[in-house]
Amino acid sequence: MATAAAAQKFKLVFFVPPSALAACKTAIFNAGAGRYPGVGAYTECAFTTRGVGQFRPGDTANPNIGEVGKLEEVDEFRVETLCVGRDVAQKAVDALKKAHPYEEPAYEVYKLEDM
């Protein structure tokens, strides 16, 4: 098994309404996200910024917020965190999907390079 320093690292970024922020962060942290390898043994590390998201639910949507066909703008948070190992990234995404209130949670996963 690879050491923490040699393991592939990923950045998970997701967008979430304020009412679900704590639940989503708890879910991804319980899945292993937000842990930094090294002597400090830091856990639950994330960067959170506030912004406005927008979407228009399609005809077959069942939106948590808004109405089908109507453009919606909502207050949301962008959360960024580290996942050490592909398995941790996958577990964090799975946990996020279960905890997130949206029918289609918006998230991104980036493979990071060591320098």
Automatic annotation (TrEMBL):
Keywords of the record: Signal
Signal sequence extent: 1-22
Keyword Signal attached: yes
Superkingdom field: Eukaryota
Keyword Signal applies: yes
Protein name: ATP phosphoribosyltransferase
Organism of derivation: Sporormia fimetaria CBS 119925
